[in-house]
Amino acid sequence: MKSFITFAAIVSVANAQITTLCAQYGSYTSGAYSVNNNLWGESAGSGSQCTKVNSISGSGVSWSTTWTWSGGSSSVKSYANSGVSFTKKLVSQVNSIPTSVQWSYDNTNINADVAYDLFTAANINHVTYSGDYELMIWLGRYGNIQPIGSQIATATIDGTSWALWYGSNGSQKTYSFVASSPIKSFSTDIKHFFNYLTQNQGFPASSQYLIDLQFGTEPFTGGPATLSVSNWSANVQ
Ligand SMILES: *[C@@H]1O[C@H](CO)[C@@H](O)[C@H](O)[C@H]1NC(C)=O
Ligand SMILES: *[C@@H]1O[C@H](CO)[C@@H](O)[C@H](O)[C@H]1NC(C)=O
C-alpha cells in the first residue's frame, strides 16, 4: 500500500492596492510616476474601464486595467497608462531613456494594442497629450487593428525587427514601431528609436522637445479583458 500525502502550500499573496480609478480622467501620482485611467475616446462606443494602482515606488509602478468596449470598432476608447515626469529636453540633448516593463493580457481575443506613447514638440510649453510628433512602440497588437497611416519600413533596433508605420492626424506626425509578435518582457533605451528616426526619417531631434512618456493599452473593442503591468519603469536622462 502506498500512501500519498497531499501537501497544500497556502501562499498568502500580498494583494495590497492603493486605489481604483474609474472616472474618465481618474489619475494617481506618487513621486515621478503616475497611473491614468484616461478614457479619452469613450464616447465613440459604449462600455466601461477601471484601472487599479497596485504599487508605486521610485523604482517602478505596478498597475492593471480592466475594460469592456463595444461599438465604434475603428476608434480607440482609452489609453490607460503609467507615465513618468521628467525635465523636458531637446531630443538631441537626451542621453538615454532607459525603460523596462513586464505585462500580460488575460484575454487576447480583443482589438487592442499595448504600447509606449511619447510626444515631442518644438514648443516646450505644448500641451503634453499631443505633439508635433508622436512616437509609439507597439509591444502587443491584438485583433484587427493597425497604427495610423501605413507601413513605410522595417527597422532593426538593438537586434529586434519592427514594422515602422507612419501617418499624420491633423498637424501631428505619428511614427509607430510594431513588434511582429507580443513582447511581454521588454527592456530598452527609447533614445535608440529616436536615433533611428533622426538618421532614417529626418526627425528634427535638435528642435523637438520630449514632453511626454507613457506606457499603456489602447482598446478598440472586446472584453472583458485585463492588462496587468507587473512592473514598469522609465526615466529620461
Ligand atoms: C522594477 O523594475 C526596475 C527596473 O528594472 C527595478 O529596479 C525594480 O526593482 C523593479 N521593481 C520590482 C518591484 O520588481
Ligand atoms: C486623430 O485625433 C483626434 C483628436 O485627438 C482623435 O479623436 C482621432 O481618434 C485621431 N485619429 C486617429 C486615426 O488616430
TrEMBL record:
GO biological process: polysaccharide catabolic process
Gene Ontology MF terms: cellulase activity
Top-level taxon in the UniProt lineage: Eukaryota
Pfam family of the protein (one): Glyco_hydro_12
Region forming the signal peptide: 1-16
Keyword vocabulary terms for this entry: Carbohydrate metabolism, Glycosidase, Hydrolase, Polysaccharide degradation, Signal
InterPro entries, A to Z: ConA-like_dom_sf, GH11/12, GH12
Ribosomal protein is among the record's keywords: no
Similarity remark: Belongs to the glycosyl hydrolase 12 (cellulase H) family.
Protein name: Endoglucanase-1
Annotated organism of origin: Penicillium subrubescens
